[in-house]
Amino acid sequence: MGISKKAQSISPSPTMTIDAKYKAMRAAGEDVIGFAAGEPDFDTPDYIKAAAIEAINKGFTKYTPASGTPELKRAICDKLQRDNGLTYKPSDIVVSNGAKHSLVNIFVAICDPGDEIIIPAPYWVSYPEMVKIGDGVPVIMHTKEEDYFKFTVDDLRRMITPKTRGLIINSPSNPTGMVYSRQELADIAALAVEKNIYVISDEIYEKLVYDDVKHFSIASFGEEIKNLTIVVNGVSKSHAMTGWRIGYTASNAEIAKAMADIQSHATSNPNSIAQVAATAALNGNDEFVEMMRNEFLLRRNYMVERINSMSSISCKSPHGAFYVMMNVANLLGQEYYGKWLDYKKKAGL
After folding, report:
1. What percent of the chain has pLDDT over 90?
2. What is the pLDDT of residues 212-258, one digit of tens each?
3. Are 143 and 175 in contact, with CB atoms under 8 Å apart?
4. CB 80 within 8 A of CB 234
5. Within a 13 Å sphere around the CA of 3, how many CA atoms are in the beta-carbon half?
6. Residue range 334-346: average pLDDT?
7. DSSP class of residue 119?
């Protein structure tokens, strides 16, 4: 007897492991700075917290529909129309316990055993494990720093096989901060339609873009690609609500129903109080979001300038999110404060 082969194949989240280590070291009094978890350090705005408190006081603490309240689904539809030019019905929306949960729902809903999901690298560490949970096979498509860590249509065409079920696009990206342009997305959309593959479009960082760069949803390039696209978003990054655990998807009704059915057995509904808070967040103005974006822009400029002024390390200036992808190739094989930096040699590779 023992655990399943699937469970054995799933690695723990390195992000959460490192973050837990950082918190333990800090609690022990060590002088450390945490760079692991992708989490805004701003507090959730007061008007959002007030909406949640009011929901508690009114007794809104019971089950809701498994895929989300009508009020939140309508707010999401309005947001997608307003910000992305996308028209969805509430029945196309599934609200989940964070965007992570949304992504797991997607792969369980669209993958049969052996189906391949293409993941551009560098990638958010959870993507491959989520694909495995859905019985899919993660296929890594490597990109280059000189191309701003973006893949081309030719790169994608070479990766597609008869087993390809879908492609993940994360723009703006964790961890590179790159943002695909309108034309790049239009070209990718055309190939996805030609090959009839799903596009899982993770747009959780859409509000955090800089240097006059604009975010475009790939689902906005026509009905054919919209039907193949599953948009993933949430309020964690845009409204500093990571702990509230509200994410959502927008897709065609068939996929939405499948995900809602899966979720109804896995978790039932997302937290009722957090749904009220998310509704307030989406129906509010972007004043807080813009304040936070401007602060992140100042921090990005500072980090990029400092990194590129140092010897042996460098970075591209990210156009979105709040990450800097640093090139440390020149440090490999060196020691720093007694720590060996060549991971390959340390691992005996």
Report:
1. 85
2. 999 999 999 999 999 999 999 999 999 999 999 999 999 999 999 99
3. no
4. no
5. 5
6. 64
7. E
- The DSSP code sequence of 189-233 is HHHHHHHT-EEEEE-TTTT-B-TT-----GGGS-HHHHHHEEEEE
* Kind of pairing between the strands at 326-327 and 314-315: antiparallel
- Using a pLDDT cut of 70, give the percent of the chain over it: 97
Q: How much is the pLDDT for 347?
A: 47
pTM score: 0.92
Task: Measure the CA–CA gap between 301 and 233, rounded to whole angstroms.
Answer: 26
3-state secondary structure of 338: coil
Q: Which residue reads 């992570």 in tokens? A: 100
> Do residues 53 and 255 lie in contact, with contact meaning Cβ atoms separated by under 8 Å?
no
User: In the structure encoding, which two tokens stand for residue 186, read together?
Assistant: 């239009």
Tokens of 182: 């309108």
Angle, CA 283 vertex, CA 84 and CA 254 arms, to 5° = 55
For the segment 59-85, the average pLDDT, to the nearest whole number, is 98
Ramachandran sector of residue 287 (left: φ over 0; alpha: ψ -120 to 50; beta: rest): alpha
Nearest to 224 by CA among 189, 253, 250: 189
Q: Which tokens sit at 245?
A: 């655990």
Residues whose CB is less than 8 angstroms from the CB of residue 31 and which lie 6 or more positions away in sequence, other chains included: none
CATH fold of 46-283, please? Aspartate Aminotransferase; domain 2 (3.40.640)
Nearest to 190 by CA among 150, 152, 144: 152
The pair of structure tokens assigned to 219 is 């689902």
Contact 75, 279 (CB under 8 A): yes
- Give the pair of three-digit tokens for residue 203: 């747009």
CB 180 within 8 A of CB 209: no
For 336, residues 6+ apart whose C-beta sits below 8 A from its C-beta are: none
Q: How far apart are CA 276 and CA 50, in angstroms?
A: 10
* Residue 349: predicted pLDDT: 43
By three-state DSSP, how is residue 138 classified? strand
* pLDDT, position 315: 97
